[in-house]
Amino acid sequence: MVGFKDVQFMSAREKELVLAQWKRFMERGFGFEHFTDRIYKHLTLHCSFIAHFNRNGFYSTYFENPEATIRFLNQFDSDLGLRSAEYGSTWWLEGDYADINKAMCEVVDAIKGRLYSELEQKVRGRDLAIASQLLAKHGIRYPQSATQQLPKSES
Question: What is the tens place of the pLDDT at every residue in 120-143?
Fold first, then answer.
């Protein structure tokens, strides 16, 4: 990456550490053990996210549900306009933290195909598990056997 600039509240070295931890968090699939306090503080102070009370609350808001994680990633996806997930603006890409924030977007852009694919598979798996449970509740197995038909709804 291009060298970062020191700013009043964050040195170039701190920006490098944020980026390294961000890359690890993205590459390893959003595990809580990789969601460091440094990443959490940067997101809430310089990337247009609210704190969600604390690191645990933020993590649970964006990384326990794969659909929420997709919404989170969309903010860092250059093909989607880089709009804040919470405020809809792009001001987080201007000023003192533009260099680190744009570098974070580059990390996402490099691996977003894999990330989106994995998250969409999680959504699909979760949805099919819920559907199977609901069908079983009504005595219907999923996947259906050739002889078993879904009952027609009564009008």
Answer: 999 999 999 999 899 999 999 866
Residues recorded for the chain: 155
Q: Domain for residue 139, yes or no? A: no
Instruction: Tell me the per-residue pLDDT of 14-69, one tens digit each, with 9 for 90 and over.
Output: 999 999 999 999 999 999 999 999 999 999 999 999 999 999 999 999 999 999 99
Domain contains 117: no
Q: Which two tokens stand for residue 7?
A: 């700013």
Residues facing residue 10 across a β-bridge = 7
- What domain count does the chain have? 1
Structure confidence by residue, pLDDT tens digits, 61-106:
999 999 999 999 999 999 999 999 999 999 999 999 999 999 999 9
In SS3 terms, 47-83 reads as: CCCCCCCCHHHHHHHHHCCHHHHHHHHHCCCHHHCCC
CA distance 131 to 135: 6
**Residue 127 in domain:** no
**130 belongs to a structural domain:** no
Beta bridge partners of 7: 10
> 19, exposed or middle or buried, with CB in 10 Å at 0-12, 13-18, 19+?
buried
